[in-house]
Amino acid sequence: MKKFLAASMAVLLSASFATSAFADERGDAVNKRDSAAQREAKARSALEGINADLSKSALELDKVNAALPGAQKSLADAQSQFGAAQRKHQQVADQLDVAKAEQQRLVDKIDSSKKEADATAAKIAAVAAKAYRQNGRSATLRLAMTSATTEQFSKASAAADQVSRAESANLANVEAELANTRNAEDRQNALTQQIAGLEAEARKTAQAAESAAKAQQKRLEDLGALKQKNEALSKELNARKGEAQKDLDAASKDVAKYQGKINELDQKNLAGGAGAPAPTGGIFIHPVAGPLIVTSPWGYRTHPILGTAILHEGVDLGNACGTPQYATADGTVAEVGDYDTGGNGVMINHGVIGGSSWVTMHLHLQQYVVGPGQHVKQGQLIGYTGATGRVTGCHAHYEVHQNGQTIDPMSLPGF
């Protein structure tokens, strides 16, 4: 009897150790697979972002390349118009210089004519004064006192009159020329003013053409800078794309590797025996008491924190922090601890039931009250609902793995 008990105990201990070793090895593989899956999702998201940026950059580059010929032609046209405006302005400016020179010549001529007229007038006045003195009393007295004859006196007087008439005629000519010059000056002033207006207009046109040419030059330079920027960005993005693709390939390879390891372990677990038959009413009970309120179903979704598309391997149930959670079937605790983004968690290996290997996980726990290797009964308290890990609030996260693959817990009988 003692030998039988000892043998039975040895078998039980051996089975317990085997189950614990299996759970540890499988749990390690699951952790590594999940970590690789996160890296895979992150790399895929990064690659998608890079591809989107590449498409955007390529579109911008196409727009720039399409706009460049038009910008180059616009610049050439603007520069041509500026050159024509410059030549026109220079032509009118030269005309204005000639007009101003003619205007100054007339001013100088008027000054000279005025001086000549003043000198002639002074000369006439001097002759008149002299004639007056000669024809006056003093002249008569001098004539009486000299031996001059009346005939000589008459000749002298006639000569003085002749000089006076000649100077008067000269003065009249000078004054007539002065009047003509002043008329010419008035006409020249009007012409110069007109040309000055044309010059101002031509200068304004040239300045506007220059501004337009500079604007087109800047536009072309901006397009060139934008082209260089997008070319550099595309080069950088392509380099990053290569690295992201390498990361994705490596992560995908690791996911496949560890999933294969999990499958291998589950096959060994299955090969160990048929296990217990599946209960007619379903294998599992609910992980929490009360009706189940699904806040996030099983399947692919956008992670609420990471913002990337990732497989949600369990179901999130609305549940307040501190609410008890229970083992959903008999089994052995394979692992407890911090599951990174999953926070505090408990993994339970339920062995082979109904021809399938079953493992369940409870994540984001506030606290767990079981330990690795501990056998738990269906409905036994294993921990309390929390919000540990990468979450947005309190809830119960429950996973079911059948033969190494996650399934939708809500598809189970009784759920």
UniProtKB/TrEMBL annotation:
Q: Which UniProt keywords apply?
A: Coiled coil, Signal
Stored InterPro entries: Cell_wall_metabolism_enzyme (IPR050570), Dup_hybrid_motif (IPR011055), M23ase_b-sheet_dom (IPR016047)
Signal sequence range: 1-23
Q: Name one GO molecular function term.
A: metalloendopeptidase activity
CDD domains per UniProt: M23_peptidase
The domain of life is Bacteria
Domain (M23ase beta-sheet core) ranges: 312-409
Which is one Pfam family of this protein?
A: Peptidase_M23
Q: Which residues form a coiled coil?
A: 164-268
Q: Transmembrane residues, as ranges? A: none
Designated name of the protein: M23ase beta-sheet core domain-containing protein
Q: From which organism does this entry originate?
A: Winkia neuii
Question: Lineage, please?
Answer: Bacteria, Bacillati, Actinomycetota, Actinomycetes, Actinomycetales
